[in-house]
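Hi everyone, sorry if this is the wrong subforum. Our group has a chain we'd like a structural model of before ordering constructs, and none of us has done structure prediction before. Sequence below.
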Amino acid sequence: MTDFSDLVAGYGRFREHGWAEQRDRWATLAEGQSPKVMVIACSDSRADPATVFDTSPGEIFVVRNVANLVPPFETGGGRHGVSAALEFAVTQLKVEEVVVMGHGMCGGVQAALTQQFAQADPGEGGFIAHWIDLLDTARDRVTEEHGAGDAAVRALELETVRVSITNLRSFPFVQEAEAAGRLKLRGAWFSIKEGVLWVMDDDGTFAPAR
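Answer:
Right subforum, don't worry. Here is the predicted structure as C-alpha cells:
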C-alpha cells in the first residue's frame, strides 16, 4: 500500500520528468489558471477525474467529496466548501461547463441506501449521515422501485448526478450563466469495474460515451 514516503518518491519522479519536461507549461500555469471545465467528483480513490479524463494540470477545476454531491443553494449555517468552489469557478474563472461525475461501487451511495450511519454522532459517522441525507428523497424513490439490491445501488449512483445537477440550478449565478448560454451542466458516471464512462443526456438518461 502507498504511504507518505511513496508519495515523496513519486514527487521525485514528477520533479525529474513531469515538471522538468514540461517546464514551459508550468511557467505558464504559474501566471494563473484558466480551465474551461469544472468537475464535481467523488473523493473515492478509484475515481480520479484527472485519470478518467486523461487531463493535464490546469485543464480542469476539480471539487471532490463523498458521493459527488452538490448541496442546494443556502446562505445560512455552516461552511460551504462546495458552494464556494462553485461560485469561484462560475463567477471568477468563468468556466463554460460543470460536469458532475458519479461512479460505480460508491461507498457514500451504499451508506445512503443502508442508512448505516443514521443517528450517529460526529466522529462516528454523523458527519457522513448529515451529508448523504441530500439523497434521502432519491433513496426512497429508488428503493420503492428497485428494492435494496445491486440495481438499487446503480440507480442511486446515477441519481447522485441528477440530484447534484438539480441543486446546481438552485444557485442564482448558475441560473444566470446557464440562461445566458455561458454555462452548460453535464452529467457522467464511471464504471470502475468496466472502465466505461456513461454520459447523461438532456433527459436524464445515461449511455456509454462514444
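For your construct planning: Residues 150-168 form the longest helix (19 residues). The beta strands are 37-42, 60-65, 97-103, 184-191, 196-200, 206-208.
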